[in-house]
Amino acid sequence: MITYREQKDFTDAQLEALFLSVGWYSGKFPEKLRQAFSHSSRVLSAWDGDRLVGLIRGLDDGVWQATIDCLLVHPAYQGRHIASTLLRRLLAIYESFLYIDVVPDEKRNVGFYQKHGFHIMEEGTPLQLRGKGWE
Fold first, then answer.
1. DSSP 3-state assignment of 90?
2. CATH number, domain at 28?
């Protein structure tokens, strides 16, 4: 059973295994990842027992704008709606923010974010979700 947590304390081994499983070069620097996540605004994670299988990070100013920096799920766990659950949970935290931006790491991921309410902007950030009351 997959459980979800809001936490920032990961071991180097947990981060290295997850990031390398999806082919992200940054997985070769787990100590830097650990430091980066400990200083991030929001970090939500998905777990199968004690195995880190998914992660999303939000960077924000506290009231106005948030940016989704990364969203990844171990390949063995993809297709189980883990990414969608992590994104929905982070968006719930940022519900009162005016803008939420995301710059997908790959073009193939644009549709995923559009399915969750993001729109391609003509100017500025490639994908953006506006807060309630901004039309």
1. helix
2. 3.40.630.30
pTM of the predicted model, to two decimals?
0.89
Reading the chain (135 residues) residue by residue, the pLDDT tens digits are 999 999 999 999 999 999 999 999 999 999 999 999 999 999 999 999 999 999 999 999 999 999 998 999 999 999 999 999 999 999 999 999 988 988 777 778 888 988 988 887 766 556 666 655 444
What are the strands, taking DSSP E only, across 1-130? 2-6, 42-48, 51-60, 65-73, 99-102, 119-120, 127-130
12: in domain: yes
45: alpha, beta or left, given left = phi > 0 and alpha = psi -120 to 50?
beta
Domain with 8 in it:
2-130
